Amino acid sequence: MAKPNRITVENIIRPGKTNSVDAEKYAAMKTALLAVVPAEVPGLTLAEIRERIFAHLSEEKFPGGKGVSWWSKTVQLDLEAKGVIAREKTSPIRLHKV
């Protein structure tokens, strides 16, 4: 069970493995990712998504962009595991909302 102000996240690459992370940062990154990831196939590449999420993140939560790469990947893998977003079998990987 997650601790207060923490949320348990899943990882689509490692089914059954979970981690506990800061709930506020998770929520901020989830909101940013979902604002950027399109519903239309084929979606955006990870590089395109990372470029666009900065406009949706507060300097307070991610000062100077610190941790954005780690948080975006963590939330991406969790949202994939939960079936909220999906990846296309392309190279590079492209993501879209389900």
Chart the SSEs and their pairings.
Layout: E1 6-10, E2 18-22, H1 23-36, E3 44-45, H2 46-53, H3 68-81, E4 85-88, E5 94-97
Antiparallel strand pairs: 1-2, 3-5, 4-5
Helix pairs in contact: 1-3
Short description:
Pfam families: DUF6958. The protein has helices spanning 23-36, 46-53, 68-81, and strands at 6-10, 18-22, 44-45, 85-88, 94-97.
For the sheet with most strands, the description reads: 3 strands, antiparallel
The count of domains is 1
Anisotropy-based shape: globular
Overall mean pLDDT score?
Answer: 94
Percentage of β-strand residues: 15-25%
Structural class: alpha+beta
> Helix and strand succession?
EEHEHHEE
* Strand line-up in the sheet with most strands: 3-5-4
**Overall radius of gyration:** 13 Å
Number of strands: 5
In the predicted model, the low-confidence regions spanning at least 5 consecutive residues are none
Distance between the termini: 27 Å
Number of helices: 3
Helix content: 25-40%
